[in-house]
Amino acid sequence: MTFNRSSLPQEVQKLILAFSTLPGIGPKTAQRLSYFVMSQNKDEVMNLSVALRDVKENLDFCKTCCFITSENNLDSCKLCDEKDPTQICVVENVIDAITIEMSGVHKGGFHILHGVISPMSGIGPDQLKIAHLITRLHKGNTEELIIATNPTLEGEATAMYLNKLIEENFTNIKLTRLARGLAAGTDLEYSDFSTLSNAFENRMSIDT
Amino acid sequence: MKQKQISSIGLITRCTNYKESDRIFTLISEEEGLMKFIARGAKKPKSKLSGHIEPLNYINVFYRKGAGLNAVSQVESLNSFLDIKKNYDLILEAQYLMELAENLSVEGEGNTFLFKGLISTLSNIASETNKDIQVMIFEFEILRQQGFGIQVFDCINCNKSLSKSDHFFSSFMGGFLCDACLPANLSGGELNKVSISNQLLFRNIARKNYTSILKTSIPEVDILSVRKLLQKSIRDLMGVQLKTVNFQL
Question: Which of B13, B19, B244 to mutate to test the interface with A (most CBs of A within 10 A)?
Answer without folding.
Answer: B244
